[in-house]
From TrEMBL:
A GO molecular-function annotation: orotidine-5'-phosphate decarboxylase activity
Protein name: Orotidine 5'-phosphate decarboxylase
EC number(s) per entry: 4.1.1.23
Pathway, per record: Pyrimidine metabolism; UMP biosynthesis via de novo pathway; UMP from orotate: step 2/2
Record carries keyword Lyase: yes
Keyword vocabulary terms for this entry: Decarboxylase, Lyase, Pyrimidine biosynthesis
Lineage: Bacteria, Pseudomonadati, Pseudomonadota, Gammaproteobacteria, Thiotrichales
GO term, biological process aspect, one: 'de novo' pyrimidine nucleobase biosynthetic process
Catalytic residues of the enzyme: D72, K74, D77
Length: 241
């Protein structure tokens, strides 16, 4: 735990649950947005779009500003490549990094092992079934199963591979809590406050229901970043959970 966070007055929460998806096209607009935020009230997620334009220096800048950063590059490659990629992420000092569970146990074990040399390794989690997918999307890629069945299969494989948790939809968290226990980290995107635009998400839940179901952290992008008043939107979500 970062002592500065604990010492800061007006601390809402020492373990902010909301991970804001910084899906911005450039570092200038992202930094302008971040300037309104307090690291005691949220963590930040940097994904493929922003990382491709802003890179490691931008991530380090957020960390210098006391934010915990989830580097969401969803690695999926041969074990050696993924192992080296998670090490590069760990050297940046990120709080959390992810891979795709469908890369299999050999890939996930190699990633876990690669972090063993770090004194404070990032949390390593694996994406199960993307929250934008439903049964028909799985059928298209040859998987004749309900999303929750495939999520459970991949989450069990992730736990057996020694990782810290998974990315799943909040619709699956109650099931995963029962099956995988209280300590497994469940990170849930596809979060939509009541009445918000669903956009391209399919398996969704409200922030309060997601936390009640057992989500550890909520990934939220557009309902905050595109709100007329993003700080008010974040505060309302934090109040609701
Ligand atoms: O790994 C992720 O963060 C992720 C996994 C998933 O299954 N679904 C999903 O939406 N995400 C990410 O979560 C964020 C959701 O953003 P909004 O839909 O704008 O709230 C995006 O940055 C996605 O890349």
């Amino acid at each position: 735990m970062n002592w500065k966070k604990i010492m800061t007055e007006n601390t809402l929460n020492n373990d902010p649950k909301v991970l804001i998806a910084l899906d911005f096209p450039d570092s200038i607009s992202a930094l302008e947005f971040v300037a309104q935020l307090n690291p005691n009230e949220c963590r930040l997620k940097v994904g493929k779009e922003l990382f491709a334009v802003a890179g490691p220096e931008f991530v380090k800048q957020l960390i210098r500003q006391q934010f915990d950063v989830f580097l969401d590059l969803k690695y999926h490659d041969i074990p050696n490549t993924v192992a080296k990629a998670v090490q590069a992420a760990a050297r940046m000092g990120v709080w959390m990094v992810n891979v795709h569970a469908s890369g299999g146990s050999k890939m996930m074990e190699a990633a876990k092992q690669a972090l063993a040399e770090f004194e404070q390794p990032p949390l390593l989690i694996a994406v199960t079934v993307l929250t934008s997918m439903q049964r028909e999307d799985l059928a298209e890629i040859g998987l004749d199963v309900e999303p929750q069945e495939h999520v459970l299969r991949l989450a069990k494989l992730t736990k057996q591979s020694g990782l810290d948790g998974v990315v799943c939809s909040a619709q699956e968290t109650a099931m995963l809590r029962t099956e995988l226990g209280p300590d497994f980290c469940l990170v849930t995107p596809g979060i939509r406050p009541a009445g918000a635009d669903v956009n391209d998400q399919k398996r969704i839940m409200t922030p309060a229901d997601a936390i009640k179901s057992g989500s550890s952290y909520l990934v939220i992008g557009r309902p905050i970043t595109q709100a007329a008043d993003p700080v008010a939107a974040l505060k309302a979500i934090n109040a609701s959970i």
